[in-house]
Amino acid sequence: MISLRFAALASLVIATAETVAAPVVGAQTSTVASPDGRTVVSLALRDGRLTWSVVRDKRRVVMPSRLGFTFRNAPALEAGLRVADSARASFDETFTLPWGEVARVRDQHNELRVKVIETAPPAREFWVSVRVFDDGLGFRYYLPDQPNLKDFEIMDELTEFSMAEDMKAWWIPANVPTNDRTEMLYSTGPISKLTLVHTPLTLVGTNGLHAVIHEADLVDYAGMHLAGRSESRTLRASLARWKDGSAVKGRTPFITPWRTLQLADSPEQLAPQLLTLKLNPPSRIANTSWVRPMKYDGIWWAMHLNVWTWSSGARHGATTEHAKQYIDFAAANGLGGTLVEGWNRGWDGNWLLGGGSFSFTQSYPDYDLAAVAKYANDKGVGLIVHNETSAFVENYEQQLDSAFTVYQKLGVHTIKTGYVGDTANPGGHDHQGQYMVRHHRHVIETAAKHGIAVVMHEPIKDTGERRTWPNMLSREGARGQEYNAWGGEGGNPPEHETILFFTRLLAGPMDFTPGIFNLLITRSETNTPRTPNDSRPRTTLAKQLALYVVLYSPVQMAADLIENYANQPGFQFIRDVAVDWDTTRVLHGRIGDDVVVARKTKGKDEWFIGAITDEAARTVDVSLNFLPKGQQYVADIYADGKGANWRDNPLALSITHQPVTAAERLKIVMAPGGGQAIRLRRVP
User: Does domain 7-278 have CATH number 2.60.120.200?
Assistant: First the structure.
């Protein structure tokens, strides 16, 4: 592991130096409001304990909630406190993103910092910094260098979110013994019924308030779950663990991640979520020209269908011949990359338990890494190298520099990592714990030194670090397309993607891998068509196309077998759709029901609209007033065809073209499990 330092610490010091109001020494309650004045956060000292609370539009959102820590072999740091100092600052700037859902982000916030010290020995101290934006807030702890707090082990962070209302939650369980990789279906229910859940946690109140609890700038700390209390509206921060039971190992000066609370008046206002980006430091990569958003194909889906195998043998998927076929397809169809999985030694046998034998430079005999990389470069296609670790991170770290040096020499600029394991091997540390957080940051930073971008599967959660390290392109971190290929679990229900948009996608980009055209897929061992109750994509073809717009990622896969795209007019939409955007607008949305999203292609006068629904047929009427007035556009509409539905007629697709302007409205008709994908191109 590398030693990590905190760039955020410097920003805190700078912000303190830029204080625009005199400190209010000894204040028992201090407040800070959002720039629009609607949201007010209070830090208050009550009976020697520091609490935080939130009011929005003069209504309580968060009741006074606990702050502090417990340590191994040291007293808790939460009681017997006094306010020693406080300071305020305001900030307003706009920064650009090298890629993203939007091109520019305005960071306008007001900040309050409060310093507290224990009134009795050992007289330890800490700061709490709160930043309040129009779309939410973040707060974090800073433990300065001090005589009585040097090296420490945090056992628990005592942060609580005591919500004023028993809001409806959309959640997935955390620390499930067989899956702490967030690959589960979402459930709904009130806060008072939650046990231990992942973030981001999306909440909806009876007055229409939407709130999302998450975190930002997770660098050298444990990932945060949220623990509920029976029949209580209070959620407590619950940190993932090292094998020895501690949560965070550190040394002062030390700064924690931001605890974030996004606030919105409607579901449409939740996306694009930019709060975590504003709470991360600026880019550490001066020249990001080598970081390329792209569409890609790959040797992947065939293994999930059991047509090919990751392991060597007669049905090995990652052969030089197969790779060149997929590279040819990518080049012919304007796709920027080709992914190859199963190319390297270590897949034979039970690789889930034997991941320590993976090599990240040695190929199987039927795959020539150097030849394939050259072939791809000559075709103008980027080879995406897969690095599955099965969570044997020490084996991976030992090879990291040497492997990335090889890839860099071969002109490889993107890798896909994988961590199919529920704890770090061989240490047994939690999948979302500090050990793994440090590892993932080490991989990202090492990759940046070698000009390599990362697409991470089975990842640590996204907390906005793509602003600091733009080579962190995308990640999985949810139940993706592959669950539609496996037997026994029934696939993802039609509502799944309409929930992901308002939950997991609020953390950041997701490599969902859409674009399956053979929706009545077969498994090679049975060779029989699947029924609606089997694992298969429970969508129509139009919805598969719409997912390219709805589920944001700067890398989007044409995930099906390339032969399934032959003679398919709908594939033109995949050729055309962008992956990098100037603007994003949610035109309509209801969590678990439907979503309609419009995005403008970066640097081009064209828009794309994606609309998806759950198991119900829906019609949504949307305005095109986001288009420039007086300009004529042509709408290329890929809609559900006559009689389409996900159960027994998923392939019916209607493609039409019609002139439109900003003054018009579009009626978007979606079949059960269906959707609609639209390209709006300006008429010269």
Answer: no
**Per this entry, what is the length of the chain?**
684
Phi, psi (degrees; rounded to nearest 5) at 548? -65, -25
Burial of 104 (0-12, 13-18, 19+ CB in 10 A): exposed
Does CATH place domain 294-477 in 3.20.20.70?
A: yes
Q: Which of 84, 167, 169, 93 has the alpha carbon at shortest distance from 127?
A: 84
Q: Are residues 491 and 534 in contact, defined by beta-carbon separation less than 8 angstroms?
A: yes
Measure the CA–CA gap between 66 and 334, rounded to whole angstroms: 54
Q: Which residues of 496-517 are buried (b: 16+ CB within 10 A; e: fewer)?
A: bbbbbbbbbbbbbbbbbbbbbb
Could you state, in order of their start, the residue ranges of all structural domains in the chain? Answer: 7-278, 294-477, 521-549+569-684
pLDDT at 354: 87
**What is the C-alpha separation between 129 and 383, in angstroms, rounded?**
44
Summarize pLDDT for 66-123 with one digit per residue, the tens. 999 999 999 999 999 999 999 999 999 999 999 999 999 999 999 999 999 999 999 9
Position 17 scores a pLDDT of 30
Neighbours of 621 (CB within 10 A): 11
3-state secondary structure of 591: coil
**Spatial separation of the C-alpha atoms in residues 474 and 296, rounded to whole Å:** 13
Residue 243: both structure tokens together: 């094998």
Catalytic residue among 111, 476, 482, 497: 482
- Residues pairing with 583 in the sheet: 600
DSSP string of 198-247, one letter each residue: -SSEEEE-TTS-EEEEEEE--SSSPPEEEEE-TT-SEEEEEE---TTS-S
Rounded distance between C-alpha atoms, residue 597 and residue 500, angstroms: 14
Mean pLDDT of the chain: 93
User: Which SS3 state, helix, strand or coil, does residue 332 take?
Assistant: helix
Poorest-pLDDT segment among 228-232, 269-273, 341-345, 371-375 = 228-232
> Selecting from 2.60.40.1180, 1.10.287.130, 2.60.120.10, 3.40.50.2300, what CATH number does the domain 521-549+569-684 have?
2.60.40.1180
540 contact partners, CB below 8 Å, separation of at least 6: 519, 640, 644, 645, 646, 650, 651, 652, 653, 671, 673, 674, 675
Distance CA 569, CA 658 (A): 17
Q: Is 394 a catalytic residue?
A: no
Backbone phi, psi, residue 373, to 5°: -60, -45
Q: What is the mean pLDDT of residues 584-592?
A: 98
* Three-state secondary structure call for residue 53: strand
Banded pLDDT at 670 (limits 50, 70, 90): very high
Q: Is 421 helix (H, G, I), strand (E, B) or coil?
A: coil
Phi, psi of 329 (to 5 degrees): -65, -45
Least confident of 69-73, 110-114, 427-431, 592-596: 427-431
Terminal alpha carbon distance of the chain: 55
